[in-house]
Amino acid sequence: xxxxxxxxxxxxxxxxxxxxxxxxxxxxxxxxxxxxxxxxxxxxxxxxxxxxxxxxxxxxxxxxxxxxxxxxxxxxxxxxxxxxxxxxxxxxxx
Length: 94
Known about the structure:
The chain contains 3 helices and 3 strands. It is an alpha/beta fold.
């Protein structure tokens, strides 16, 4: 791995797509580049929030395996109806 000087210090918490959704279809190409950077910066913690749990599994990088220790993915629910729809998707994703 090539050592690069970064402005973001090691140990930083970075929120990803705070005004969008990392797993939205329109971000498929951008997400490939983002995964490369996230994997390279294993020394930082990346957190993203989504309303699309059904797209998480198909949107993970090929080298995800059992997950990366520097990534936290949260799923939000805006009401009980959406909770009943999203929770089974999360339970089935393991």
